[in-house]
Amino acid sequence: MPDPSAAITQAIVQLLLDAPFYAHVLAGINRRIDEEWVGTLALGLYRGRFELSVNPAYWQQLSAQQQLSALQHEVLHLVGRHPFRMREFAHPLLFHIAADLAVNQWLDQTALPADFLTRADFPELAFPDNASLDDYYGQLALAWQAPRQYPQSAASLQRLAETGGAALDRHRWWAGAGPETRQKLDALLRFGLAACSPPAFDALPPALRREVGYWRNDTTSFVDWRRALRLACQSSRQSRLADTIKRPSRRFGTLPGLKIRRRQRIFVAVDTSGSISVSSLRLFFSEIHQLWRTGAEVTVIECDAAIGRIYAYEGRLPERAAGGGGTSFLPPLAYANQHRPDLMIYFTDGLGATPHLALRYPLLWVFTPDGALKTDAFPGRKIRMTLT
Length: 388
Fold this sequence. Notes:
The protein has helices at 4-18, 20-27, 56-61, 64-79, 92-104, 133-145, 151-163, 165-170, 179-194, 198-202, 206-212, 225-235, 278-293, 330-339, and strands at 30-33, 41-46, 49-54, 238-244, 257-263, 265-271, 297-303, 307-312, 343-348, 363-367, 381-384. It has 14 helices and eleven strands.
């Protein structure tokens, strides 16, 4: 049997390409691979945090698209705060079914695992478009209370009541989710949103955008900005195949074999204008050093109103940074347009005119904690440092 942990990681990488928000959230959840712990795939709890529990036999029987749907299903439960809503409803079975119907409506209906519940299981019920958990619960309660009026739906409910079904198996740890778990979940979802580009956010289902949209301008929320920075760098890494005589081909047993070579060119613009404090510069270069340690080829561009210095970072902090004047963000961005790096990172306080320039590379702004608040018009992705 293939390594299930590696297969799940590969599925999350695929989500990073197809639906980045889900991938960023899943990247912050620990995984447990266990045949006895869970019969399918579920959100478990460990030390006050959610973890993804996966039965390897169940995972292997799913197609590649069904695996992606199963992962998205669990993330949507978290976005809807479903684990924390159980006590609001009188009938546990109807609540669990309604929660599954509420998230499954946003998934590709042709790629759902066979044990997932859909509206088709309750054909007589009049579910509204874009229905909420409460809408689904209300309609299911009608079928439960009047089985003769809704015979097919009532039969589905009776079957699930007798067998339990996958929904109850997947949700059995939810009762242990408390306030501390919710706070950690909020931080996880804020991180997923902060790492999500505007086009990726716009591609989310409308209800999901409404649920998390109020966080988009909350740059002081519980985002692990260092982690967001690392993840952005990892997603820009390039790889290629090269011949090697040190290792024979696994397929043919002959030389030369193949070796994956990874490379990454990162341009890092450092705002050295007069509004940047010495402590901010130290923080900037501390993060630059961590990026360099990952093996990336890092080019530093020091700039205030004009570019002061450009040099390859080689693990040594500069004795002083060139600058101290006004601020213009355009010179480093234009320079990067000429050289097309894999990623451009701009460390700044954001105190300057909004740059208007068509970019030919991915751009990530990293703002200081006390920097400008109105940065929505800046091109590219944005994260804000925190003092913790």
